[in-house]
């Protein structure tokens, strides 16, 4: 299980995350919104694996910003977005994966 970030802050249109091992990730706010793990954005699967709900593939959140965040227990962060979205719970492990994904997209 991933340790919690040492620091989270907004820098321009990025969310900067500093991890205990010294790694820093910079996540574009519109992408962070698109990557929300919430059922509202990603949908849900039943026991048979059928997909229900989700944002019908909406991935363009240009101009959406992070306006705040809350720590969830000892395992996650809940981001609050300017479009009103706030139901995604980003586990620390998932945030680390998103950091890698953002690096790959920028290379």
Pick out its properties.
single chain; 107 residues; alpha+beta; NE0471 N-terminal domain-like; three-stranded antiparallel beta sheet; globular
Task: Explain how this protein is built.
The chain has 107 residues and is of the alpha+beta class. The chain has a single domain (7-46, 61-105), classed as NE0471 N-terminal domain-like (2-Layer Sandwich). It contains three helices and eight strands, in the order βββααβββββα. The protein has helices at residues 29-34, 39-42, 92-105; strands at residues 7-11, 14-18, 24-28, 44-45, 51-52, 66-72, 76-81, 89-91. It has a three-stranded antiparallel β-sheet. Strand 4 and strand 5 (51-52) form a beta hairpin. The longest helix is centred in the last third of the chain and has 14 residues, at 92-105. The two termini are 27 Å apart. The model has no long low-confidence stretch (mean pLDDT 89).
The rounded distance between the terminal residues' Cα atoms is 27 Å
- Work out the radius of gyration: 14 Å
Oligomer: single chain
Task: Estimate the global geometry from the Cα principal axes.
Answer: globular
The biggest sheet, with number of strands, parallel, antiparallel or mixed sense and barrel status, is: 3 strands, antiparallel
**How many separate helices?**
3
CATH C-level label: Alpha Beta
Summed over residues and divided by their number, the pLDDT gives a mean of 89
Indicate the percent of residues in helices: 10-25%
Strand tally:
8
Strand order of the biggest β-sheet = 1-2-3
Q: Which structural category do the helix and sheet elements fall into?
A: alpha+beta
CATH topology: NE0471 N-terminal domain-like
| Uncertain regions spanning at least 5 consecutive residues | none
Order of helices and strands: EEEHHEEEEEH
Number of domains: 1
Proportion of strand residues: 25-35%
CATH architectural label: 2-Layer Sandwich
